[in-house]
Amino acid sequence: MGTKPLPFVLSLVVLLVAGCAGQGAPTPAPGAAPAASVKPAGAAPAVPAKTAKLRLILPKEPPGVSLHPLFGSPAMSDNEPIMTNLREPLVRVGKDGKPVGVLATKWEPSPDLTKWRFYLRRGVKFHNGDDFTARDIVEQAKWALDQKASARLYTLVPIEEAVAVDDYTVDLVFKNPQPLLLTTILQFQVVPAAVSRDKREVPEGWLVGTGPYKVVEWRKAERVTLTRFQDWWGPRPQIDDVEFTFRAEAGVRLAALQAREADWTSELSSDVASLAPQVVRAPSPETVWLRPDEYVLKELGGESILADKRLRLAVEYAINREALVALYQGFATPSQGQFASPGDFGYDPNLKSRPYDLEKARVLVREAGAVGKTVSINGAVDRWTKDREVAQAVANMIEQTGLKVKLMLTPQAEAIKYRFTTGENRPYMVDMTLGPTDALLEVQSRFQQIFTEGGSFSATSDPEPTRLYRELTAERDLAKREEKLAKAWAYAYEESHFIPLFKQMRIWGLAKNLQWDPGVAGTTGIADIKFSD
């Protein structure tokens, strides 16, 4: 009896295009949130009520693995409002989009750009009382290098070695030139050396950083409480205490704002945003896109029908981007053949998406002899607003070509759990991140992950993207590298190795008396938030 062909899987992915204590604590299941009442070592006991308390409501609690110093990312929308305030990087994106020193005060690249020297900020302490020194960077780099490459989804800095020159000077060494290192180093949030040495797999250690706030309590599925870290190196914030709660329904979060039971919330849907006491909008780096699986299922004994370029093109011609954007009532824009936005490194103003043409899509399906064949759309949901509606709309559009569609929707936490428990270097529905650093190198990093040989989410056997990537990473001249990066993305789009759909606006609801500017990065730095009265 022959092997039954598997239906082709087309992964619907969101590019979101962006991280010692508790001895004897139990190891959580991957993807699980921290255990109830997690209290990291060094965290202060409950403190008396103070003059300034900020109440934030998030759409959902971050999956446990998203908090991991190596696997997590401060650019992931689920964990960003919390982790941005606990752990800090060497460098971060400033309000104007330019690199700003955080734990590093200055930096120097070597002439060949294969080594960067960072001079570290003195007088910095971790929440557990440890002093911050170069050894913390060295130990965390060693920890990252110990992990399987396929599992280091968000460790975007390809460090070969970290060398402590002295207590407050560290050299990062690379195999290839790194002219844009300051944009990838954003993902490297520092934890104490003891956490890295122990390769600790319990969340308490993951939450210990040098940030302006530290954890008082993490009560699973209920709330996270932070308090101001009195030994923080920066200027004293106005906000003393912080409470995060979790409510999935946008209407419930909006009602809390209106009733003055909350001060801040994110991911409001376009149909209710205008009802918030104060609305903050910003362009999103997130790209909703389709990734054709061109060979993985064939390896598993199935049928990868989208190895045929005609069918990849048919899928794109079937997508009515304007109809998808209309779901957001003016808070989204169609993508133009790439993940980069105007002003981003590698953006090509001449690259445009193919127009909606259902008849052409039907002709291509017939020419490929694929009428009646099944395409499975596997999408992670509960990740961005109207994700289920978009997935259903895309499925309906593709069905009009003559292809059959099997729609499979996977909760994000389940998808992430699968990704990090299997460690498989093959596509699976896991949200990828195009976060605050998309203005520069993350567009390059995403190209490597998605299209090149050995990339964490590579789903094509085409060798040309790998060749183009090696060519651009060897280029030291920044202007020439940008040209090569744009050329590489243009090739991937021409071959229909990815199908970008749209970008949506980010929408936050705030209390009327709250002052906050998300800046270019859109990060929730609570130290910068103020009440006007």
How would you describe what is shown here?
With 533 residues, this protein is of the alpha+beta class. 25% of the residues lie in helices and 21% in strands. It contains 15 helices and 20 strands. The protein has helices spanning 80-83, 134-146, 181-184, 193-198, 203-206, 250-258, 296-299, 309-318, 321-326, 358-367, 387-399, 412-422, 442-451, 464-473, 478-494; strands at residues 8-15, 53-58, 91-93, 99-101, 104-109, 115-120, 159-166, 169-174, 213-219, 223-228, 241-246, 264-265, 278-283, 287-292, 332-334, 374-381, 404-411, 499-510, 514-515, 530-531. Strand 16 (374-381), helix 11 and strand 17 (404-411) form a beta-alpha-beta unit.
Q: Termini separation (Å)?
A: 75 Å
Overall strand count: 20
Calculate Rg over CA atoms. 23 Å
Low-confidence stretches: 1-50, 149-155, 420-441
Specify the overall morphology. Answer: globular
What is the helix content? 10-25%
- Beta percentage is 15-25%
Query: What class, by secondary structure content?
Result: alpha+beta
Main beta sheet strand tally, sense and closure:
12 strands, mixed
DSSP helical segment count: 15
What is the overall pLDDT average?
A: 80
Question: Brief overview, please?
Answer:
This protein is α+β, with helices and mostly antiparallel strands.
Topology:
Blueprint: E1 8-15, E2 53-58, H1 80-83, E3 91-93, E4 99-101, E5 104-109, E6 115-120, H2 134-146, E7 159-166, E8 169-174, H3 181-184, H4 193-198, H5 203-206, E9 213-219, E10 223-228, E11 241-246, H6 250-258, E12 264-265, E13 278-283, E14 287-292, H7 296-299, H8 309-318, H9 321-326, E15 332-334, H10 358-367, E16 374-381, H11 387-399, E17 404-411, H12 412-422, H13 442-451, H14 464-473, H15 478-494, E18 499-510, E19 514-515, E20 530-531
Parallel strand pairs: 1-16, 2-11, 2-12, 16-17
Antiparallel strand pairs: 1-14, 3-4, 5-6, 6-8, 7-8, 9-10, 10-11, 12-18, 13-18, 14-18, 15-18, 19-20
